[in-house]
From TrEMBL:
UniProt protein name: ABC transporter ATP-binding protein
Keyword terms of this UniProt record: ATP-binding, Nucleotide-binding
Organism: Metabacillus litoralis
Superkingdom, taxonomy of origin: Bacteria
Nucleotide-binding as UniProt keyword: yes
SMART domains linked to this entry: AAA
Residues passing through the membrane, by range: none
C-alpha cells in the first residue's frame, strides 16, 4: 500500500527547473532511496513531499492526504532529519527533545517517557545531560534523528544523514534505520553515496538534473548494465566505426554507442568478454585501446546513463 504518491510533480523558479515530472510511489514500511549528486533535486523533492514548499504543479499525497490542502495534517505524520544539524548546542539532549516534543503538543509524563525511550533507542541515554556542543558529529546526528521521531511519525525523511561522520557512527545510524523499518516506519533516504543505497534501501530512484533516470531495486538497476561497461578509444575515426559495427554483432554486446572517438559497451560478462575483445583487436592489428572497465554497480549505471560520476 502506498505511503507516498507523487504524480507529475514539478518545481521551478522562473526559468530554473529544479524538479521535472517526478512520478513516484513509495510503499508503507519500505526504505526508499533518492540517489544522486549534489544539486540533483533530492532536497527539493523531499521538501515538497513534507509540505515545506509547494510544487509548481502536480499531485502529492502522503498517507492519502493531499500535499496542498492537508499540509497541517501531513506535518503531524512526517518526521524530518535535515542535512544540517538542527539542534540547540547549549542545551542538553533531554531539553532539545523536550523542546521539539512540545512543538507537537506533547507534555508531562508522556513527553518525559518518550524522551527517555528515544535516548535509549539512539544509544545516548548515558550522555543525555551533556550539552549538544560537546557531542561528536555522529552523536549529534543520532539526536537529530531522535528529534524527528519525537511525535511518532508514520514516515521519516532523512536528507544525507551521514554527511561528515566517521564509519562507526554511520554504521550505528544504519542499524537505527533498520530498526525503524522493523517497526513499520517508512523511510525516505537521500544520499550521493551508492554504497549507502546498496546497503540500506529496498528500492532506489536515481535522480539527475531534477529528473528520475532509473527506478527499482538495487538488483534491478544494476542488471541494466548486465556484466559491466567497457570503454575503448582510438585516433582513427574510420577504424573506431569499423569496430562499432563488428562488436555490435557479438552476442555478448548488450548495448553499444559511439561518442567521438570513444566506444562505450555494455557487455554480458566483463572479465570474459574483455579477453574476447582484445583477441579481436589483435587479430585486426587495431590501435584501439581499452581505457576503462567498470563492473556492475549503481555508480556504473549512473555514469553510463549521464556521462558523469555520482561524486565529481
Amino acid at each position: 500500500m502506498a505511503m507516498i504518491l507523487c504524480d507529475k510533480v514539478n518545481k521551478h523558479y522562473e526559468n530554473n527547473h529544479v524538479v521535472n515530472d517526478l512520478d513516484l510511489t513509495i510503499n508503507k514500511g519500505e526504505i526508499f532511496g533518492l540517489l544522486g549528486p549534489n544539486g540533483a533535486g533530492k532536497t527539493t523533492s523531499i521538501s515538497m513531499m513534507t509540505s515545506q514548499i509547494l510544487p509548481s504543479n502536480g499531485t502529492i499525497k502522503i498517507n492519502d492526504l493531499d500535499g496542498i490542502t492537508k499540509r497541517k495534517e501531513i506535518k503531524k505524520i512526517v518526521g524530518i532529519v535535515p542535512q544540517d544539524i538542527a539542534l540547540y548546542p547549549m542545551l542538553n539532549a533531554i531539553d532539545n527533545l523536550k523542546f521539539f516534543g512540545e512543538l507537537y503538543g506533547i507534555k508531562g509524563q508522556i513527553l518525559k517517557d518518550r524522551v527517555n525511550e528515544l535516548l535509549s533507542l539512539v544509544g545516548l541515554a548515558d550522555r543525555a545531560k551533556e550539552p549538544i556542543k560537546n557531542y561528536s558529529g555522529g552523536m549529534k546526528r543520532r539526536i537529530n534523528i531522535a528529534a524527528a521521531l519525537i511525535h511518532q511519525p508514520l514516515v521519516v525523511f532523512m536528507d544525507e544523514p551521514t554527511v561528515g561522520i566517521d564509519p562507526q557512527s554511520r554504521n550505528q545510524i544504519f542499524d537505527l534505520i533498520k530498526l525503524l523499518k522493523s517497526q513499520g516506519i517508512t523511510i525516505v533516504y537521500t544520499t550521493h553515496y551508492m554504497e549507502e543505497a546498496t546497503a540500506l534501501c529496498d528500492r532506489v530512484a536515481i535522480i539527475d538534473d531534477g529528473s528520475i533516470i532509473a527506478l527499482g531495486t538495487v538488483e534491478e538497476l544494476v542488471s541494466d548494465v548486465y556484466g559491466g561497461v567497457v570503454e575503448l578509444s582510438g585516433d582513427n575515426q574510420e577504424e573506431v566505426r569499423k569496430f562499432v559495427d563488428l562488436f555490435q554483432q557479438e552476442s555478448f554486446t548488450k548495448d553499444i554507442r559511439l561518442s567521438g572517438s570513444k566506444i562505450e559497451m555494455v557487455v554480458e560478462d566483463i572479465n570474459k568478454n574483455v579477453a574476447e575483445m582484445l583477441e579481436a583487436l589483435n587479430q585486426n592489428d587495431s590501435n584501439l585501446k581499452i581505457i576503462n572497465m567498470m563492473h556492475p554497480s549503481l555508480e556504473t549505471l549512473f555514469l553510463y546513463k549521464t556521462g558523469k560520476k555520482l561524486r565529481d
